[in-house]
Amino acid sequence: MKKLKTATWVALAFTIAFVCSIGVCAKDELKEARQCTFVIPSEFTLESESGLFVNRNEPMESSSISYDIYDNGKDIALTNREKKMNPASIEKASIDNTSNLTKSEYEKVISASYKETLGEDVKFNVDSFENVTIDGYPAYHIESSLSVSGQQTIYQSVYMILSKYKTFTITYQRAEDDQCQELFETSAATIHVS
């Protein structure tokens, strides 16, 4: 289970990298967001890793909540002098493809990330892939499951919230026998972006 837990966090990093690779950029249509907030259930405590909360009854309960912010860096403005001194620093605008993210694309990339991390085939399925709106910001709500031979099935509920300069990712993760789905749903209902 420890190997699977480590692999899950590595895959979460791949998820963040995946969001970056699909072209998150400062689009005029997206609103700027300063922060994303949500309530962490009292059954979860902050680990030494920033943004990682584990069930206080670990290892009996292996559920966790992670929170990550990807800043695309597009909100940095150069002065005319800086632009003149280093013309290469002026980037061409990239195309924002995040609104085109699909269930099959997400499933393919994340599945490959798990396989690479664990060194074996992993059964990763996206059970639900929804385009949602949270406080006026476009977002994805993705329900998925992960199975490795000889291990319990892991269930994930991911919220990826897009703004002009930041992508906020909240991942609720639990094993098959963890009794925390209701806590996760209550926490997810408190997600706010401003």
Descriptive report:
By secondary structure, the chain is of the alpha+beta class. It has one domain: Protein Transport Mog1p, Chain A (3-Layer(aba) Sandwich), CATH 3.40.1000. The protein is built from 4 helices and 9 strands. It has a 7-stranded antiparallel β-sheet. A hairpin with a 6-residue loop joins β6 and β7. The longest helix is centred in the first third of the chain and has 20 residues. The chain is globular. The chain starts with a helix and ends with a strand. About 11% of the residues have low confidence.
What gross morphology would you assign?
globular
Number of strands: 9
CA gyration radius, whole angstroms: 18 Å
Q: State the helix count.
A: 4
CATH architecture: 3-Layer(aba) Sandwich
CATH superfamily label: Mog1/PsbP, alpha/beta/alpha sandwich
| Percent in strands | 25-35%
Distance between the termini: 37 Å
Structural class comes to alpha+beta
